[in-house]
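Suppose you are handed a protein chain with no further information: no name, no annotation, nothing but its sequence. What can you learn? This example shows the usual starting point.
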Amino acid sequence: MSNGFYTVDTVDKNVDETSDRLLSGVDLAKRLGVSPGTLSRNRAKPNFTQWSQGKDPEQWAWQYVSELERYPPVLSTNSDNVD
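A reasonable first move is to predict its three-dimensional structure. Written in structure tokens, the prediction is:
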């Protein structure tokens, strides 16, 4: 299924780990308008990137990287998504 974002299998190569948008759970929860507990419960689900994108005010998809204990945005692979 292609939705313009990388899959979880390739996330290590395709997230912006140097971004100033590398967010903590508390910060991402605020951005998405959910509680930190809700964010934590959803991050392990296979549709987390789509779920987070649906809640994000700019429609960004997010991925949890356990090694960083942070949430970087998932980089788009589809240039047609640019406004």
